[in-house]
Design brief:
The structure is a single chain. The protein is about 30% helix and about 25% strand. The protein is of the alpha/beta class. The strands form 2 sheets. It has a 6-stranded mixed beta sheet with strand order 5-6-7-3-8-9, with helices on both faces. A 3-stranded antiparallel beta sheet has the order 2-1-4, covered by helices on one side. Helix 4 runs antiparallel to helix 5 (about 125-135). It is built from 8 helices and 9 strands. The two termini are about 25 Å apart.
């Protein structure tokens, strides 16, 4: 289980996060919704260790690892997809080609462009490549910031299948998203508004699927 306790963050007089607390169980997906500028990315950046909170803490109740897929593309354009994998992946060159990673590549279609330079890839290809690198680290928790933004339907479906498989294997996801297809994976959904986190959905109490209209009502 990943535990978040009383996270606070301000920039000057602007209070972004106020006593943010929740838990993420193994095999669960937690959705964070909110309007642009509400602090969703700030929260994920704190949980990924990119920026420090003003106060509060976050931790695994047992040992665990985290991968983070930010909204902005972290890849290096002048390198090939394979070179980016070598740069970001902690394993050996031989490990890159092992069976586990080949399954990841196949699911996300990485093999079709692995030798192409990133600057020649579409937005969907870049997103799939970044997600593959995140999965290759075998994380216990993946943090996703708008993972389906500006992607076509086919690409979205492929990513959703991979996320479903990851959850089924006991992985945990915390996702900041506006996409109903991600929300429909969620066990719990929280609204981040005015720095406060509000529970909006709990799958243990309601198993209905979401529509865009339902999402708008939450906001």
């Amino acid at each position: 289980m990943f535990v978040i306790e009383n996270i606070n963050k301000s920039y000057g007089k602007n209070n972004i996060l106020s006593d943010i607390s929740f838990n993420a169980q193994s095999g669960n997906c937690i959705g964070i919704i909110g309007i642009n500028g509400s602090g969703k990315s700030t929260l994920l950046n704190i949980l990924a260790g990119c920026i420090p909170p003003d106060s509060g803490r976050y931790y695994f109740d047992t040992e665990g690892t985290i991968s983070y897929l930010p909204q902005e593309n972290p890849l290096i354009d002048d390198l090939t997809a394979l070179d980016n994998i070598r740069l970001w992946y902690n394993g050996s060159k031989k490990d890159i080609r092992n069976e586990k990673n080949q399954i990841i590549f196949s699911k996300l279609g990485i093999h079709t462009f692995i030798n192409k330079k990133v600057k020649t890839l579409s937005g969907g290809m870049k997103k799939r490549l970044s997600l593959a690198i995140a999965f290759m680290r075998e994380p216990d928790l993946i943090l996703l910031d708008e993972p389906l933004a500006a992607l076509d339907m086919l690409c979205k479906q492929g990513i959703i299948k991979c996320l479903n498989d990851y959850l089924a294997q006991g992985g945990t996801i915390i996702a900041a998203t506006h996409e109903t297809s991600i929300l429909n994976l969620c066990d719990k959904i929280y609204l981040l508004k005015n720095g406060m986190l509000h529970m909006k959905y709990d799958a243990s109490e309601n198993d209905e699927k979401f529509t865009e209209a339902d999402f708008c009502k939450m906001l």
